[in-house]
TrEMBL record:
This is Chorismatase FkbO/Hyg5-like N-terminal domain-containing protein. Pfam families: FkbO_Hyg5-like_N. It comes from Dechloromonas denitrificans. Residues 53-182 form the Chorismatase FkbO/Hyg5-like N-terminal domain. It comes from the Bacteria. SUPFAM superfamilies: YjgF-like. InterPro entries: FkbO_Hyg5-like_N (IPR049368), RutC-like_sf (IPR035959).
Length: 334
């Protein structure tokens, strides 16, 4: 079930599309029949204004809508998208609108997964406006982390250990947008020996730690998928190479390499390599894109699949973030 472009996916039958994402600033046009996460962030280095990414299945999908979540399911796998406007949530002296929206989005996700008997959240993509802005004395990313963790704890998912791979990026405007993939079996969480686990960050990074693992190995019939979370220039728990986009790019990829090495220790298939991953690279400042592209080409070659997106990163001193995924076939014994 690889990531495919739109024409190939539709040619294979629209009922076999699990869902996808639309990146870029182009007009959305007609909505397809599957859940799509619209990421209103500029693409970098592409002549087109937008890009469609599609998850395609081998069999027809069941579809539904639950509390504003559009979802599709294929066997033991579910993909869904929810968007919530912060304006629909009234802040209180102790709970911001973003915190309330984040908690409610994850509550709805967990209710859906419980109803579908697919309780294990595998991978999450989070996008919110003004991620680094401070409102009422607290950065908005930290408000999001509180709301997210509240829902995890309320639904007894726990906030450490077996938590999903995830990213959280900032866009200029728009609703809180969350896409997610879940299944009937737990993911195998993967951490990075070069970094403190995000869920164990010290209190200087906010009242609640981020709720995600550095990567996750997940299993479908005959298939193993490696999801690598948003990965940045952090060693231990501190940002390194401030104001140096090339240094941050090299350090971020070194962290990806460390995660891949740890995943290979846990994987059931042949080893994953940096040159086979599909990457999404978020760059804070568009003018840094040529340097980032040149640096990555020197490290992993210029034939790998990379989509570059301009977006804000979860810390104000981080200049880029890299996420990635790959899929291997599981060998079966006769």
């Amino acid at each position: 079930m690889p990531l495919a472009d739109l024409p190939d996916a539709v040619a294979g039958g629209a009922d076999r599309v699990l869902g996808g994402a639309r990146l870029g600033q182009a007009s959305p046009g007609l909505a397809p029949g599957w859940p799509v996460q619209a990421i209103a962030a500029p693409l970098l280095g592409k002549p087109d204004d937008s890009l469609q990414e599609i998850w395609r299945c081998d069999a027809a999908c069941a579809a539904g809508e639950s509390e504003g979540i559009r979802w599709r399911r294929a066997g033991n796998l579910l993909y869904g998208v929810i968007e919530l406007a912060e304006a629909d949530f009234s802040p209180t002296p102790v709970v911001s609108a973003l915190q309330a929206a984040s908690a409610e989005a994850y509550r709805r996700i967990f209710r859906l997964l419980d109803a579908q008997r697919l309780p294990n959240l595998w991978r999450v993509w989070n996008y919110l406006a003004g991620i680094n802005q401070e409102v009422d004395g607290l950065e908005r990313y930290r408000q999001f982390n509180i709301g997210r963790q509240d829902a995890f704890l309320e639904f007894r998912r726990g906030a450490t250990g077996n938590v999903p791979a995830a990213c959280a990026l900032g866009v200029a405007e728009g609703p809180l947008s969350i896409a997610f993939m879940a299944g009937d079996t737990p993911a195998v969480p993967v951490e990075n020996p070069r970094q403190v686990s995000a869920y164990n960050y010290p209190a200087e990074y906010g009242p609640r730690s981020p709720t995600f693992s550095r990567a996750a190995l997940v299993y479908l019939p005959g298939q193993e998928i490696l999801f690598i979370s948003g990965t940045a220039s952090i060693v231990g728990h501190r940002t390194v190479h401030p104001d140096d986009v090339v240094g941050q790019c090299r350090e971020s990829l070194a962290n990806v390499a460390a995660v891949v090495a740890e995943a290979n220790r846990l994987a059931r298939t042949t080893a994953y390599g940096l040159d086979e991953l599909s990457y999404r690279v978020y760059v804070r400042q568009a003018e840094d894109f040529p340097l980032v592209r040149e640096t990555l080409a020197g490290l992993i070659g210029d034939t790998v699949e990379i989509v570059y997106v301009q977006a804000d990163i979860c810390r104000h001193d981080l200049l880029l973030e890299i996420e990635a995924m790959a899929s291997h076939t599981l060998e079966t014994c006769a």
